[in-house]
Amino acid sequence: MTSTVSGMTTSAAAPTGPEGAIAGDGAVTDRLVEANQRYAAEFSDPGMDARPVLRVAVVACMDARLDLHKALGLQLGDCHTIRNAGGVVTDDVIRSLTISQRALGTRSIVLIHHTGCGMESITEEFRHELELEVGQRPAWPVEAFRDVDQDVRQSMQRVRTSPFLLHTQDVRGFVFDVKTGRLREIDPA
Ligand SMILES: [Zn+2]
Known about the structure:
alpha/beta; 15% strand; binds zinc ion; globular; disordered N terminus
């Protein structure tokens, strides 16, 4: 997540300015749909079933600078990718991991946070501001953090202690450096 939360705005208004000129008018989506037509023209059925070839699930931040497949040498069909703001292990991530392991055969879990995450620049106060603006407090915690290493450790701990998962022996956590492209492994201790 790369959000610039200066001023802590919680407004849903579309951005303005040069780079915001196309936001919200459908032009971006049109471009994606056109790209898909080119993709589909070259596409051939890989003949795979839904079970990831490498039997691994990757939980990562949604940050636009993190190309998971390229960064990890992954090919189509290799893994499950589960992404959200911060790469936080929420109940919904546990839901996906549980299905990944119990229904689709994955055994390993890789957790990836990254340098310069937008979650480091907001606080739980974000919820309070939302409540003031819309009159309703969100049910979900923001899951903001200050120390990325510690947040990776907490995520590993949440996975390892989940009663729903079948396989928690191979759980490893990393911080991806958006400047160098390198992963740094985090010691779970
Ligand atoms: Zn992030």
